[in-house]
Fold these 3 entries.
Entry 1:
Amino acid sequence: MVPRNVWVYFLKITLAVGLLLFARGFLPPTVHQSGYNEVGHGVTPKFDKIVFMVVDAMRSDFMFSSNSNMPQVHNLIRSGFCYPFTAYSDPPTVTLPRLKGLTTGSSPNFLDAVINVADDDSSSSITTHDSWIQQMALHNKTLHMFGDDTWLKLFPNVFDVSDGTSSFYVSDYTEVDFNVTRHLATEFSERQWDGLILHYLGMDHIGHKSGPNNNLMTQKQGEMDGIIGRIFNDMDDNTLLVVAGDHGMNDVGNHGGASKGETSAALALFSKTFENPQNAPLPNDPDYSYYNDVAQVDLVTTLSYLLGFPVPLNSLGLFIPELAELYSKKDQEKILESQCIKFGISIQDCSLDTLKSQQKELVKMTTAYNFPYMYTGLLILGLVSVISLFLTWKWLPHNSALIWWTLMPIVYFIGMLGSSTVEEEHFIWYWLLTSYLIFLFCRSNNGNTRIMIAGVLACFRLIRGYKSAGQKWVAMYDVSTFFSNHPYILWIFITFTFVTFAQPSSLRMVASISVFVYKFLTTIYPISLPRMVKYARVCFVLCILDSVLSKANPDLLFIMLSKNVNIPMWPVILFTKGLINCLNLSVEYSELLILMFGYACFFALGGSNSIATIDLSNAYHGVSNYNIPLVSTLTYLSNWSHSLIWINFSLRVNLSSKYNGVGIAKTYFYSISCLSVCIACWVLREHLFIWTVFAPKLLYTGAWLIVHEIFASYIGDLICQIMSYFS
């Protein structure tokens, strides 16, 4: 007979294979034509040179609203030297796919959001894709690039002069920009370039670290304003200055999703020959719509005409109509006709409306699903679901816990078929956990047990009420917002948290004090300072040693990797664990409760199914430069710390239960979870929110299964077994 633990691991691995096969078919590379367009459009170019300045995460209001600190830009707009726009940035709103859109004019590939994290992945190169960068290079133009080294990965061996900086070292928002600006004096004095690309990262890093509404952001806007004014004053009449945000940011400073703030990027074209006076700044707009709205990919086609190069083969952009006044009537007709020919529209039916309609249709055709992979993945997931359900009913005791283990995944399955319930998944877990606790309360006949369950329910109410969860109301005022606005009060609670951890054990005392001092210093000094890096490494060593001596209890390590504003919740979580431990529930009841708490705490303290909520601010403690394996590990630990603590609790309390009926019941839940998300992606592949809601959920589902449940659980189990052996 096959041992039960073998069945559990076999089915989990098979589940992961099925999910990866489906993802392989659902997230294929974007369809594109290879080669370069050699057919010109016959329109007289307006400029010989271009300065292309990307300000990472430059949201439209940062440049155009009355709250923005960019007086020189506002003066240039009022003087008529600028064409300002709000550019719609297609999701996923992360740098790599957005730069592809800004250079090739093609629709973004969601897979680029994954590649975006693998910073040096060679698959990000697009040297075989046509772009305005490649067109300039083919026409023997000299290109210089300074800033985000993503450009060097997209266009290796294209730039004549370059100096790149890592975009992922988010703790630094000064040196990354100084590294760009320090080249300006030489570049404009020598002028040995036809295209000068500048990519500033500081604004994006400030957003990730502190959000969009703070003094640092205002100062950074002023810095960018001064640079724009300096470039404008130094350039001649034959030079075009383009200032663009690759994307925006949401109300908490992150990006990757499809909210108004994330998709509304600033776009401005400057020239000393323009005559287009407009009012500036404009009143604040909650929809971030300033001046005329354009598609971000339209910039590529527009630059092709302004600079006199063929339109890139894969560009789905249209010439921006407002700039047509720069051309004669004859050239305007040429622009319209050449676009109609490219989009396959007859001259008789050609108009701006028909071009926009055709543009939308072409965008839909750029992604070609691989259905054999998708169907194979669905078949495997379905088989694992059936087998795991059968074994769950066979191995688990036939009591009320079995009913909960059976019905809970079905409730989850139904929830994953709707876009709103995916965006606000936390409500599913809040409802399930509250209902289950009430059930346990009613089931018990012991007064003390009922009091402890009521205590668990009260603690959960504190946890879920601490921070606004989900995606639609994440910026609502809550307790965490109050603490963020009153740091002195926050640090009173943080101090209390570390006092509760500073047990009489000498090592725990030293580790707690060290981590407390380090967390306080991070509010004063950048964590990238050499002495801060060394101090962080000392804290890591102390936390790991403490975890080993306390029999694999990594609470202090997780606190170090938490956001400061979330630290006051750790005593509540640990107190909740203590209450659950005192309930003495049988393993099938306690493991279900622990699973629900793992998910609920993830969402309650900042997690969601959006890429925008992935927090990078705690992924660089003790890291002196960008290191993919290390940063990826720290990113996972910091974002899932409030769930990992429940895995650790499960292993410490129920170490021997992992391979009995509970193990297969968890496999059943994860099989239904994966199956529901994959079915939703398959059925709703033409849905409006497929790339903004369901595709990100597919990635999170993979993370929960492969990284969280299989890898982290296995490693944790191994560590606990070792600790148990030595004890």
Entry 2:
Amino acid sequence: MIFQINGSSIGCIDEVTGYNADSGILMGSSKSIRSDEWAVSTPMAIAQEANDYKYTNSNIRGGYDSDMFIVYGQPVKDISIIFRFSQWGYVLFGSSVGLSFFWCVRFLGLFLASFEFLMLITKKNKMLSFVGSVIIVFSPTIQWWYATNGLMEMLISAQVGLVLFDKYLKSESFKEKTICMSIIAICVGTFILTFYPAWMVPVAYIFVPFLIWIIIENRKNIHITKKDIIAFIVILLVFAGLMARIFIKSWDTILATLNTVYPGKRVLLEKGSPKVYIGFIVNSLLTILTSIANPCDMAVMMDFWPVVLVILAVYIFKEKKSDILITMSLVVVLILHAYYLFAMPEWLAKATLFSRTWYGRVYQVFGLLNIFILFRMLATREFKFKNKFAIVISVVLSVLCVLVAKYYHPLVITKVIAVVLVGIFTLIFYSILMANQKKKMFFTVITIFMLVIGGLVNPVRSGIAAVENNTLLNKIEEIDSKESGMWALIEIGLPEINMPMMVGAKTLNSSSVYPNLDLWHKIDEEHKYEDIYNRYAHIFITLVPNEEETTFELLAPDVIRIFMTYEDLKAYKVK
């Protein structure tokens, strides 16, 4: 934080506006594909500083008060921020240091939470817990989606909550129990307020077996006193009061979001792509393969599933192990994989809450459960693979994986790359199979591999010079300080539509995380195009002559274009 280190790709603003190079970069490069971070969420966080971190912001969505907390998920000066730990830095230190805090505390939080959670399921094996934490933190899913949609907060709060729940059941100290309950309440609130069901649903499924397992493991330790009950009631009342306050303040926003065409009422019942599902090697190397169009949507939790299947087979059939945690986890694995591979009937999707997610988001996270299963088996197995047997299995698995990858991606996997990949994955699979015999090798190989595939995703930069020294932003601020008024961004897209708000200037067509129906009803009085603008949307404007009709066009599920007249601009008092 002293050096304002962060991993934002906000330098892309420099490149797009054409004024400066990608300033502030210390290592790596900005990723333009992560526009939801550098062009939307980070600019909105910076816009909050100009708004003094108020709960509502009238500089966006056409000048209407906009709820910045519940859906936008931005820093606010409000007691509610107790459930948004990663944003405390903004309120305390401002945008530049706050952005650094946001990136650093989430990295440390996920690493430490994963370490403690793995310590719980590996019976306090520190080496395995460390390596498992490295795998989780540097998995492509985490790194590509690091700053958006609350995935980090979900995983941190779920793991911390379960670790403390286990501690609560084991403890006999009233003080310790009370502290555990208090932090668990914060974790529950944090998870709920990520407000992104597409990941909340599969992540909740992933951790259900561990909740049940903790209760079963501690069933003989459970001892509840009257003082515990009183403390629980007090904490529950405080928690309920805080959550009620948030939901009352943001109820209109919640309803507006749930009633949107996208994503509120979206129900996807399609099955996932087998090509993506089994493309293990290509998906794991997305950080260094430049020919993948959208690496974000193909990113995975690095679970090494081919070798997990081998160890699982040995664990069940050779050792004849029966572990209730692994059994329950496998049930959830089957549920998640079945959802991805087969189209689910709508009634079943709604009954299981899968109607609130879609196959792409499930695919990106279900590997986390495989990681937990792998490390549980490594910690509890007794069987040791013979050296030659492990080599043969590793070679066969690697060749099969590369052949599949080459079949689906012939232009990416050339002969040279194929040979190199067979060598790399043979080493990786071998180190996992021999993890208990060759611990140093396992530690070194997996750590280096994860640093390569995850550490290369986001840049390492210092500060936010791309914003502070941007000529266009400075000019907007200068003009608005002399004569404030409504700004409209014409014939232009991201990030420009979100730039005026960053310096506190009112913007007509900034990205709208939840719709402003009243705003667009002014030029669509018959609500003819409401299905188009009733959504999360990036809003582009094209000017047309006054004699032409005002129309709305859907360019993508989250992008709309408005063909707007000069008279429309006057109606919005655009200066």
Entry 3:
Amino acid sequence: MDREALGGSEIEVDPDALRQKYREERDKRLRPDGATQYLSAEGDLAHFKEDIYAKPVARDPVSVDVGVVIIGGGFSGLLASSDLEKRGVEDFCIIEEASDFGGTWYWNRYPGLACDVESYCYMPLLEEVGYIPTRKYASGQEIFEHCQRLGKHYDLYRRAYFQTTVTSVAWDEDSARWIVKTNRDDVFRARFLIRAGGGLNKPKLPGVPGISRFKGHSFHTVRWDYEYTGGGPTGELVGLKDKKVAIIGTGATAIQCIPHLGAWAKQLYVFQRTPSSINVRANRPTDREWAGSLPHGWQKQRMTNFESMVSGIYQEEDMVADGWTDIFSTVFHFAAPDKNKLTPGDVLQMADFKKMEANRRRIDEIVKDPETAEALKPWYNMMCKRPCFSDEYLQTFNRENVKLVDTKGKGVSEITENAVVVDGQAYEVDCIVYATGFGFGVSSEDQMGYEIYGRNGLSITEYWAQGLKTLHGIHTNQFPNYFVTFGPQGPLSINIPFALQAQTEVIAEIIADCARNKVRTFEVTAEAEVRWQEKLKDKAFSRAKFYEECTPSYYNAEGTSIGFLDLFYFGGPVDYTQVVREWLNNGGIERDIERTYLE
């Protein structure tokens, strides 16, 4: 392929000028407070996380002994439950804060919500329940309903304790049980504990002065208030016809809901710190003839093909053929020096420059106002922020009632009783919508709202105070019979359910093995943790400089990179799946796990 060609079109770029521009734009956004610039929805801000979708249900406290407690009823908990059942483990229960299964798909119900990964890959266990999504990118409502479908298929509702919040988790050495207590005065005594809570449900808010002072209406996108806006997940926000609305944030969530806000609000102000990279979405209904021709095992094959493509692993066929695989096939498949003797890294960077330049040119083609178009252009490498896909977002800025307020990387300055202030200019509004994402802490208390105490009262936060230590992101020394999904030091994946399945399958097999062999306690050795840290560092080494040079985002701890490279396994989810499977099949338990047995 010609080195000036990208997707069949000739695009000229000046690499040195782009590197300089990227650095300048990054430096505008660097802040000394890094990730601590955000606020949790606690105290005066606690109303931002209240469950507005269900009425409280009263029940008596329970006190039970159980084989396995699963904390979380989203995809992690559902996959863990199904894998346990497949292996004959029936003695388990699920504790869930929401009033139904779904996790992030229960809490997030904003207009336009949909998965940005193809639904045939994203929605797990489709073959097992005999369901095919209605569209290539399913709506949030359809995914939520699929979670309910899984709950019914695996008979999980009778095992679930909904509207129940875990308040404390502690290991009891004498009984070799996890003691799990809740806000309903429940006490669960579990042989094994699976923490299956994801990081996409607890809203974070910008640390802007005056956020509690605003006297108008405000809410976070993770608790969309349809009583105020009117309408529903498909739009029709009739309650905003006479309202001036501000939305703060222009990430993946905002990209989906801004077109609906723009269509209905009297005036919409979009407050942007860093623009997202917008690619074509091209959603479409499922071809039923194609769906009927799918062979046994099709979903696992398709998921693996997708993850391989986006990990830069060559595939004979691109089964998914969407925006994600186009990005990565364009960028990663330039992995050979060209006739001008560029290094493979230089070739990859050149391809990235060209792909991002194509995105910037597309903005000029769509957005009519030149100043707005220029402000919407992303100046960073493709994977510094999660790429977004939309066929309506950029077009929304052509509406007369929509104004982009570009904060030039600084963010909102202040919020008053009736306005959002940027650089001294006040924009009076009736409503503020916060599209500022989710808290993603390392400690259990940060992520889940409670602490976990292992042997001798040691908290997991204390254990990790001098650095994260796990095996595969699943097991932790000093915390027997304890498993984590979607936790630190697991795989970094675009399609999260693919990575989750690798973890829940291994967890279920270990628990089933412990049951067969009458294992009392199961604990990873410190030596095994050390070996995993070495592997993590080896995989992360090549990514360190990349993320250090990225514009601030949650991908690099808002530009600090502190702990970020220890937080994930950068070998890719396909490689990770092979690693944990080989570990399980080749004596990993015998080598790396200390076990005691029931008498």
